[in-house]
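My current task is to audit a protein record that another person submitted. Alongside the sequence sits a line of tokens, each denoting a local backbone shape. Please read both lines and tell me whether the tokens look consistent with the sequence. Do not assume that whoever made the record got everything right. Thanks in advance; the entry in question is below.
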Amino acid sequence: MIARGYQRPGDAERALEIVRGSDGIARTTALAMEHSRAAIAAAEQMAPSVTRDALVQLAHLVVKRIS
């Protein structure tokens, strides 16, 4: 389906079924949260600054949007 660009009728719907039937979304969410925690931990090693605070807020925001 991907190789043919979802050009056949029902391709997009079938792809959505496959995604929903797998644990891919939950695994992706967990991985994003893990990366967000790592980003926050790395940012917290920086000296306090507006930039550091913005990076931490961004990492929190990204996870909040997907969870």
User: Anything to note?
Assistant: The chain has three helices and no strands.
